[in-house]
Design a protein that fits this description.
Layout lengths: L10 E4 L9 H8 L18 H13 L4 E4 L4 H16 L5 E3 L11 H9 L4 E5 L6 H9 L3 E5 L13 E2 L13 H15 L9 H10 L6 H16 L3 H10 L6 H18 L3 H7 L4 H32 L7 E3 L7 H12 L3 E7 L2 E7 L6 H12 L4 E4 L3 E7 L3 H15 L7 E4 L2 E3 L5 H5 L16 E13 L2 E6 L2 E6 L9 E13 L2 E12 L3 E2 H12 L6 H9 L11 E2 L4 H6 E3 L4 E2 L3
Parallel strand pairs: 1-12, 1-21, 2-3, 2-4, 4-5, 5-6, 7-8, 13-14, 19-21
Antiparallel strand pairs: 8-9, 9-11, 10-11, 14-15, 14-17, 15-16, 17-18, 20-22
Length: about 600
């Protein structure tokens, strides 16, 4: 497919055909493939490699061997490290803890093996890394140090020569645990094998890591994250309580974990030392936790300023290519966040990197269904580059010689031209159902069963359609009512009393002066909505010479349709007007006569 020029950012609605008489939660159950009630507690020994790893770790613990935990610098790796440290302490071992800084690179290296061996480590357990650590495992073997790898990243063809626990290996019942989730299941397996109860007090760390690392909150992940969230709400760790207070949030849910607490944990590793976040997560004293939380909050504000500056720089440099690669003069620690923001802005897969000593260290983020890791695999097959990379379909990290940048960029752009689909390059608003009446408090409160919301279990969004009445107007805003549901829009929103409004909204409970009321957050709002079915009818009328709406005729023109000649298949997404006002009940392909 030849991809046309970039530059548009629009939202298309995807609507389920749901009976609006159902409650909100019943509509969600009918529209989604995942149901919270179906989630089951995972069996830790169902994770590939667990049966090999557990005896090794238990033998080392019983012998009182010196065990080191080598984690990662992000929220997932930090939480997973804390999980294994606290578990091993219950088994009578006080582990060494090693968290790399970003400037050391991702994953355990031979020099870090040597360092830990010199500190007396007889066993090293990795968390959230190690699946490709062949050189490090070989170095450990040479030094007589036992290695156990726990990771959740995609494995390559050859595994390290040691016990490897990874849900993405063949034979797994579930592939999508976070690194902390894998660490927790190892903790469960260790306790189970030693006759101890499941360490449920550690589940809040799994919940935080699962959401913050953008892992699917479905199936076993949902089960673990939900229990952890309820635990967090009931009696949070001092560190999590302090971070919530620093962020100014009084509600613990997927949004606060993913957008407020998680980024503050990540800030330490992005622009400082991840050890500070680890000390906060494991703090027992509330006063000490509050001090560290204040420092992380300050780091996060600094990180936000750097990200905004870097995003603005990238957008100014954007040349319309299908897979842009940007090199920024900012810390590499913010590259992933910047790549994600730019990818959403230009609706293209994006790589952002920083150069040091002639080596570019970069992070990539994808859009839609475009397989970023697969694109890097193809680039390597075609060019031999990059030599070092890894990650997932939606996110990856890589490093390469700065002299190879043009070759990599050309190859990735060609891959994107051939693989990107129009469906990938537009923003979608996925709706769960319809609101056609005033909502009760109980009906909206029921939706909390979905929390923590996150990847593949998003915050619910509903279509709200009807004639608008203007309740009040102020400086820069209007309060309008549709189907007895009130919400705010910009004063520039072109709506008159009685005009039909199409809104995509998320209901929530607003509390003011201890009084609860139903409110909705507007995700998208428009005064025109065009479905495929409506366009098919309009197209038939148009072909017969009948009058149609201006925007319908404009769509037909943009698609190159003829009133009199034979027409073939076309993708509605090729119409800019449809991308602005469109809504689908099914796929985006409409057959022309």
């Amino acid at each position: 497919m030849q991809v046309k020029g970039c530059g548009f950012k629009v939202a298309l609605w995807r609507l389920p055909k749901i009976d609006p008489r159902l409650s909100l939660l019943e509509q969600i159950r009918a529209s989604r493939s995942f149901a919270a009630e179906d989630a089951i507690q995972p069996d830790p020994f169902s994770v590939p490699g667990m049966k090999d790893a557990v005896p090794c770790v238990l033998r080392a613990a019983l012998k009182k061997s010196s065990i080191a935990i080598f984690g990662d610098y992000d929220c997932d790796g930090i939480c997973g490290t804390a999980i294994l440290v606290e578990t091993l302490r219950e088994l009578g071992v006080d582990p060494l803890v090693r968290l790399p800084r970003r400037d050391e690179g991702y994953g355990i290296q031979p020099e870090q093996i040597k360092e830990l061996a010199e500190r007396g480590a007889e066993m090293i357990i990795t968390v959230d890394n190690g699946i490709t650590a062949h050189k490090a495992v070989a170095a450990a073997r040479d030094l007589g140090v036992m290695m156990v790898v726990t990771d959740h990243h995609e494995p390559k063809n050859l595994l390290p020569g040691c016990p490897v626990v990874n849900p993405k290996l063949p034979g797994s019942d579930y592939r999508d645990y976070s690194g902390a989730g894998v660490a927790y299941l190892l903790a469960c397996a260790l306790n189970q094998a030693s006759g101890r109860p499941e360490p449920e007090n550690l589940l809040e760390l799994v919940s935080l890591a699962t959401v913050a690392d953008i892992c699917p909150v479905t199936g076993p992940n949902y089960c673990l994250a939900r229990k952890g969230l309820l635990q967090m709400r009931d009696n949070p760790r001092p560190g999590i309580r302090s971070l919530a207070e620093a962020a100014g949030t009084n509600k613990l849910d997927g949004n606060s974990l993913g957008w407020q607490i998680g980024p503050r944990v990540n800030a330490a590793g992005r622009i400082g030392d991840p050890r500070a976040a680890y000390e906060l997560i494991t703090a027992k004293d509330a006063a000490a936790a509050a001090v560290i939380a204040g420092k992380l909050d300050k780091m996060n504000r600094e990180r936000q300023k750097l990200v905004k500056t870097a995003v603005d720089e990238c957008l100014k440099k954007y040349d319309g290519s299908c897979f842009p690669v940007f090199i920024i003069g900012h810390p590499h620690g913010i590259a992933g966040v910047v790549a994600g923001r730019v990818a959403q802005a230009v609706r293209r897969p994006v790589i952002v990197g920083a150069s040091s000593g002639g080596i570019i260290t970069a992070s990539g983020r994808s859009i839609g269904e475009f397989d970023l890791l697969g694109a890097l695999d193809e680039c390597r097959r075609l060019t031999g580059l990059p030599e070092k990379y890894g990650g997932h379909r939606q996110a990856a990290g890589l490093s390469f010689d700065s002299r190879d940048l043009p070759k990599i960029q050309r190859a990735l752009n060609e891959i994107a031209v051939s693989r990107l689909k129009p469906e990938d390059m537009v923003e979608w608003v996925e709706l769960d159902g319809v609101i056609n009446r005033a909502l009760s408090l109980d009906e909206v409160k029921e939706l909390d069963i979905l929390e923590p919301c996150g990847l593949e279990n998003p915050v619910p969004v509903f279509a709200l359609t009807g004639p608008a009445s203007i309740v009040r107007e102020g400086d820069g805003w209007k309060l309008i009512s549709v189907n007895n549901v009130n919400f705010f829009v910009s004063s520039e929103f072109p709506v008159a009393a009685g005009q039909t409004v199409y809104a995509a909204v998320t209901p929530y409970i607003d509390v003011y002066q201890n009084i609860e009321r139903v409110a909705v957050k507007v995700v998208d709002v428009r005064t025109v909505s065009v479905t495929r079915d409506l366009l098919v009818k309009a197209y038939m009328a148009w072909r017969q010479g009948k009058a149609v709406e201006i925007y319908e005729e404009k769509i037909f023109s943009e698609l190159g349709l003829s009133k009199t000649k034979q027409n073939s298949f076309v993708n509605l997404l090729e119409s800019e007007t449809f991308r602005k006002f469109g809504a689908f009940y099914n796929d985006g392909i409409v057959k022309k006569e």
